[in-house]
């Protein structure tokens, strides 16, 4: 049974443990959203103020672990490729049934929203007049709905994995000739994808120089999915030094020194702080300091993937077109 696999058990157990705390936090959040009135001088209002601080600490603690757990989830998928026939890496495992891709999508979305909630919490705790308290807990109620979907999908996903069924390896999944969920994207000429990738990066760079939050935010909204696409169609063959290998997961493995964790971390941090920059300006009406952090990580990401191409050309004297 898949739930008895140690890595899966840890994922499920920690997720459910955090979820139990979040159910309690959800109940109190609803109370705060409905009844919290800072100008009132009642015992119930004081109780809500104390509870709001306690719940904030619990949620902050839980979301912090959820962020760490996301990377452990990716590690788990990679480990499961050793026991699922046909799977060579996490790509084959995540497509082992119809719930995997949805689960990964929801987890990625939640990962970014967790970070934004932590920023909202920080703003609320720094304000002395509780003006962001209701906003923060409304945000958590919305986040709780997404977390419930994630937990439900996670149960369905792990429960539906059939280890007697052969799955497709990444060589099949990311082959433009085959019919798969991403095959139509792989048919886009790579020259267009690469040109668009560097153009969007330069656009975000210009927005950063001019301190334009909205263009910077919008360019990063495009930059994140475009970067994952360009990794698949262009950069991954240079990382593997194999023109037919286009998997966005295999370079997470130890054979490639786990470089994938560093590549994706720089991409996620760069785009997250771009969203955080706009989030703070739009909701809290303040000039954010996240511009520099965002452009720093985005630049690191672009330099790393570009270096793989240049180093390959210097070593072999050919491009992998």
Based on DSSP secondary structure assignment, what is the total number of beta strands? Answer: 0
What oligomeric state is this? single chain
What's the alpha carbon Rg, rounded to whole Å? 22 Å
Listing every helix as H and every strand as E from the N terminus to the C terminus, the arrangement reads HHHHHHHHHHH
Q: Major sheet, described briefly?
A: none
Approximate strand percentage: under 5%
Helix-strand category: mainly alpha
Mean pLDDT: 89
Please give the alpha-carbon distance between the first and last residues: 44 Å
Low-pLDDT runs of 5+ residues are none
How many distinct helices?
A: 11
Shape descriptor: flat
Helix proportion: over 70%
Overall description:
The chain is built from eleven helices and no strands. The chain is mainly alpha-helical and 321 residues long.
Key attributes of the depicted protein:
321 residues; mainly alpha
In terms of topology, how is this protein built?
Layout: H1 6-35, H2 43-80, H3 90-94, H4 100-126, H5 133-160, H6 170-173, H7 183-186, H8 190-209, H9 213-240, H10 259-284, H11 290-316
Brief description of this entry?
The protein has 321 residues and is mostly helical.
């Amino acid at each position: 049974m898949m739930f008895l696999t140690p890595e899966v058990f840890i994922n499920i157990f920690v997720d459910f443990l955090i979820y139990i705390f979040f159910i309690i936090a959800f109940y109190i959040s609803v109370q705060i959203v409905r009844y919290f009135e800072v100008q009132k001088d009642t015992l119930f209002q004081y109780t809500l103020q104390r509870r709001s601080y306690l719940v904030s600490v619990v949620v902050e603690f839980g979301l912090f672990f959820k962020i760490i757990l996301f990377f452990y989830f990716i590690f788990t998928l990679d480990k499961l490729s050793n026991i699922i026939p046909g799977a060579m890496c996490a790509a084959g495992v995540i497509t082992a049934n119809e719930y995997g891709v949805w689960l990964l999508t929801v987890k990625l979305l939640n990962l970014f929203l967790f970070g934004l909630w932590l920023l909202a919490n920080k703003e609320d705790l720094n304000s002395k007049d509780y003006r962001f308290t209701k906003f923060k807990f409304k945000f958590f109620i919305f986040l709780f709905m997404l977390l419930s979907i994630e937990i439900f999908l996670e149960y369905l996903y792990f429960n539906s994995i059939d280890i007697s069924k052969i799955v497709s390896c990444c060589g099949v999944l990311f082959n433009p000739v085959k019919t798969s969920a991403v095959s139509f994207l792989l048919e886009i000429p790579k020259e267009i994808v690469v040109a668009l990738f560097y153009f969007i990066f330069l656009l975000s760079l210009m927005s950063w120089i001019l301190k334009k939050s909205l263009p910077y935010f919008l360019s990063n909204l495009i930059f994140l999915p475009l970067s994952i696409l360009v990794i698949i169609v262009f950069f991954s063959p240079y990382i593997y030094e194999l023109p037919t290998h286009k998997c966005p997961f295999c370079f997470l493995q130890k054979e490639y020194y786990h470089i994938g964790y560093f590549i994706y971390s720089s991409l996620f941090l760069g785009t997250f702080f771009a969203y955080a920059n706009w989030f703070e300006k739009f909701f809290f009406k303040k000039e954010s300091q996240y511009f520099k952090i965002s452009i720093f990580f985005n630049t690191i990401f672009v330099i790393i993937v570009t270096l793989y191409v240049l180093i390959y050309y210097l070593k072999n004297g050919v491009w992998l077109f």
